[in-house]
Fold this protein.
Amino acid sequence: MKSSADVQGSAAIDACTVRVVDPERVASVNARMPGEDDIVDTADVFGLLGDPRRLKLLVALLDGELCVCDLAAVTGLSESATSHALRLLRAHRVVAVRRDGRMAYYRLDDAHVRMLVDLAVAHTEHTDAIHPERSGA
């Protein structure tokens, strides 16, 4: 068991001894930092991409638009679950819809979304993640 001195000693190693080490760099980063609303909206998009079912829908749409029925077939989701996920993605402008009569065809909203999904998939394909949260420890 660690003593309180051990805990305090390790905390001191991690603690900053000065408030700002490089004030010019801090000012530069602060100047280009997006506004709080933009940060929250971006975090929301990453949250949407963080769900494997929704991400599977987006990967399916990398090849072009598909209707809800086809997206359900590709992803293994029910049509209802697919529609619900697409509604969320559409509300955040991650996907767009084109209607043709009673049919709705979905596509990635723009090149930024395509690039984000492409880069995320490429990153995971060429790296071996450690996944400490998945270990039995």
About this structure: The mean pLDDT is 87. The chain has seven helices and three strands.
